[in-house]
């Protein structure tokens, strides 16, 4: 068996892992870098692929998958909600960046048509190779993938072992394998207690609103937006909470897929109290109201959060709450690091308060270490999806603890 890292070796973005076993070749994820320029994983020929497996519906894991359907019809496996969210996100990607991409809606349709929905812990077979999805706790429908051919592989995809209001955590009880391909986004960093961060966000929002200001929370449409709404609901937040953009469509998809939620009833109740934003007139109105606005995109790369952030940033009585990892080169990152907004080369000065809250959907360092310590046998650990420096530091540390770990480079082949 051979594992080739096609992307996200020493960086976060454009994930792609190729697993070859005799005549079977399985591609795990095929994403795009969400930064300014489109960066895709190393090339694969669709006709060489036996199957495509998607771990979860984030663009850095699915964004380049339609490329495989320009000239191919590869069978695709994912959880049901992942397939539905993938379709939504890829159409949105084409709307925003279609001119930079080699594929069209046609290929997205073909991908969906070739998709087979698989449940968690329901073994399925690809050319005699056994595969299984395990809950990864990262976003609704997110999976780790277990593959058993001549060797056994576990690919974590993106993983979270911390329970959130929206999702059940990933389990530490994993099957024994020969290789673990693991993300390491937070290789060298731990998260503070989630409840403490939730309370800080509530306090930040209350203070700003009681001062007559508006709070913008830029959020990923899938999972994060709904979790935020659940937080405000659970703390009995007294002020209006609005949600905008693609997150509203995601709400409906999640309600139709309750098996992927920790507490479907909580989401139903939360959405019942939430205000849905309906068009531009309402956007222009609520941006001056004492309220919280949850809106994609999470890194201010597009969507209504761009409009909101330009308006809200002007006034010092307003606030912007950053609640997720901001990839380098995104407007969200420059807001956090330099305190400026930069859209298409235009600078906007920021007078509003900017708060940072750690509500990550990735395991922190302690959880990653606990996962590695819980592994049965002595698998080779292949680290991907982390920034070079921290990825290498974690590999060194794991090796000093007696593990066999490597920080993989893109293009590297591990036998
Ligand atoms: Zn992800």
Can you walk me through this structure?
This protein is α/β, with parallel strands linked by helices. The protein folds into two domains: 2-189 and 361-414, Ribonuclease Z/Hydroxyacylglutathione hydrolase-like (Metallo-beta-lactamase, Chain A); 194-356, Rossmann fold. The chain is built from twelve helices and 22 strands. The chain has helices at residues 59-62, 80-97, 105-113, 194-210, 224-234, 246-255, 264-273, 280-286, 304-312, 331-338, 365-374, 388-400, and strands at residues 2-7, 16-21, 24-28, 51-53, 76-78, 115-117, 124-126, 129-135, 143-148, 152-155, 179-183, 215-218, 240-243, 275-276, 291-295, 319-322, 340-343, 346-349, 353-356, 380-384, 404-407, 413-414. Strand 7 and strand 8 (129-135) form a beta hairpin. The longest helix is centred in the first third of the chain and has 18 residues, at 80-97. The termini are close together. Bound molecules: zinc ion (ZN). Zinc ion (ZN) binds at residues 56, 58, 61, 138, 158. Residues 56, 58, 61, 138, 158 line the site of zinc ion.
